[in-house]
Design brief:
Strands 1, 2, 3, 4, 5, 6, 7, 8 and 9 form a nine-stranded antiparallel sheet that branches. The two termini are about 40 Å apart. Helix content is about 25%, strand content about 35%. By secondary structure, it is α+β, with helices and mostly antiparallel strands. The protein is elongated.
């Protein structure tokens, strides 16, 4: 008889372990600035068309009731100002960010056994930056931004397709200008943690914490 259980199957012996094939992570040798350290790791992420997007990251926000929510978004820029992503300003994530402008990000690169966690305050980026990014998007993506009432209920898939057709008629197959309800946010970090997988779950964790305008670097227990 087949057993049906809500518990996941136990992993095989040794499954889920880390090989330690990538270099260890040491507070003494990381870059003094976390963005420089992020760029160092980002340059080492392998590109594989068959793998998930390297720029995919989890964005965690909190609602007015204190309940957390999370979803995947795409990192579009990382520089000294912070980590930038784009969305509909009327979506759930945007409404939560407007009410509570603090959030957390997680990027995970399994091929390198690496994870980056980012925490901080979030702000809208200037309209000119959102305009420039929107103009560089694929034509279909620009139409979708106009057509989709992101995160709001839809009666059917047909309703969405009608909205897309209406957007094409109103704005053309490749809208040149950005919808006023769509644009970018930037998470300005107050803490960034770099996680490097190591054997026997003795992982390396290095956290940068901003204090009095400077970054304090420390090792965390795995």
């Amino acid at each position: 008889m087949t057993s049906h259980s809500s518990d996941p199957p136990a992993p095989a012996s040794g499954a889920g372990g880390r090989t330690g094939a990538t270099p260890p992570l040491d507070p003494a040798t990381v870059a003094p600035d976390p963005i420089a350290q992020f760029q160092r790791w980002w340059a080492e992420v392998p590109y594989d068309p068959g793998s998930p997007e390297a720029a995919a990251m989890t964005l965690a926000t909190v609602g007015e009731d204190g309940a957390p929510s999370a979803r995947m978004v795409l990192l579009r820029q990382a520089d000294a100002r912070g980590f930038t992503f784009h969305t509909n300003y009327e979506s759930r994530k945007a409404r939560e960010l407007e009410a509570e402008p603090r959030a957390a990000l997680v990027l995970w690169w399994p091929a390198l056994e690496r994870q980056v966690r980012v925490e901080g305050v979030v702000e809208r980026i200037p309209d000119a930056e959102s305009d420039a990014y929107f103009a560089a998007r694929a034509p279909g993506h620009r139409v979708s931004a106009w057509a989709s009432p992101q995160s709001w209920p839809l009666g059917s898939r047909d309703e969405l397709e009608r909205r897309v057709a209406d957007a094409r008629r109103a704005h053309g197959a490749a809208p040149a200008h950005r919808p006023p309800f769509w644009g970018g946010y930037r998470l300005c970090p107050s803490a960034i943690e770099f996680w490097q997988g190591r054997p026997d779950r003795l992982h390396d964790r290095v956290r940068y914490q901003r204090e009095a305008g400077a970054w304090r670097i420390e090792r965390l227990a795995p």
